[in-house]
Amino acid sequence: MSKLLIVGTVAFDAIETPFGKTDKILGGAATYIGLSASQFGIESGIVSVVGGDFPKEYLDMLNAKNIDTTGIEIIKEGKTFFWSGKYHNDMNSRDTLVTELNVLEHFNPIVPKKFKDSGIVMLGNLHPSVQSAVLDQMTTKPKLVVLDTMNFWMDIALPALKEVIKRVDVITINDEEARQLSGEYSLVNAAVKIHEMGPKYVVIKKGEHGALLFNEGNMFYAPALPLAEVFDPTGAGDTFAGGFTGYLAKTEDISFNNMKNAVIYGSNLASFCVEKFGTERMVDLSKAEVERRLHQFKQLTQFEIELM
Amino acid sequence: MSKLLIVGTVAFDAIETPFGKTDKILGGAATYIGLSASQFGIESGIVSVVGGDFPKEYLDMLNAKNIDTTGIEIIKEGKTFFWSGKYHNDMNSRDTLVTELNVLEHFNPIVPKKFKDSGIVMLGNLHPSVQSAVLDQMTTKPKLVVLDTMNFWMDIALPALKEVIKRVDVITINDEEARQLSGEYSLVNAAVKIHEMGPKYVVIKKGEHGALLFNEGNMFYAPALPLAEVFDPTGAGDTFAGGFTGYLAKTEDISFNNMKNAVIYGSNLASFCVEKFGTERMVDLSKAEVERRLHQFKQLTQFEIELM
Question: What is the ipTM of this complex?
Answer without folding.
Answer: 0.92
